What does this fold into?
Amino acid sequence: MFSRLTRPQAIAVCALPVVALFATAVFAPLPFSVAQPGLTANVLGENKGAEVITISGAPVRETEGQLRMTTIEATSPDTRVSLPDVIDSWFRTDQAVMPRDSVYPSGDSVKEIERHNEEQMKESQDAATQAALGYLGLDDEDVEVSLKLADVGGPSAGLLFSLGIVDKLDGDGTGGDLTGGRVIAGTGTIDAAGRVGAVGGVALKTQAAKRDGATVFLVPKAECGDARAELPQGLRLIPVTTLKSTVSSLVALETGKGSVPSC
It folds into this structure.
């Protein structure tokens, strides 16, 4: 025997599955990561008590100013990102929602991702060294370069590593600092031929750069639009495509001679 439901009761009962479905959709994990500005590190100085760039086999000059590589911090691969998290990030300038696969493209486990990022960092460091020594016309059999940067993975510090090596060995080519005493930050991959590649997350990296005192930000030319989107006031963008053109831009900025490109 079934009891007869009144109309209000029937509506309430029918609505329960809909409410449950909606709640499940709202709080279900989504394939996204939430990113924010991360740490920056001066490649011309020390990181956690160790020199970032150590060179032997050639005279090394004292440097002034800073060359700061930049990072983003993203929610870990095993963190559940739900619809409320995504909506909250849409309304904030210090966070961005990114597809999880674009942040962690290398696997599902934390160990797999860490191993992949370490491999990418090593490859990036090797390419950065080759690019810098090639630009300076130095033989890598005579000059030994060691690069150490704790707790950072991936290839996006390549350009800054190359610039740091050039500044320590040659400066601006006339004995002056490549930075002109400024705090210069940036991002970009680099290959052994000195070509700069895009990296992603540049809008957040500009915020990290400004937070840590930078007045100039080097950005892969293809990502100028992204860098302008949330550009902090007082931070100058310089688009870059190669190590050679980047050095030329910094020398022009320091000396006031020649043109400095802009986004």
In short: The chain has one domain: 36-74+110-255. The two ends are 76 Å apart (CA to CA). Residues 1-29 have pLDDT under 50 and may be disordered.
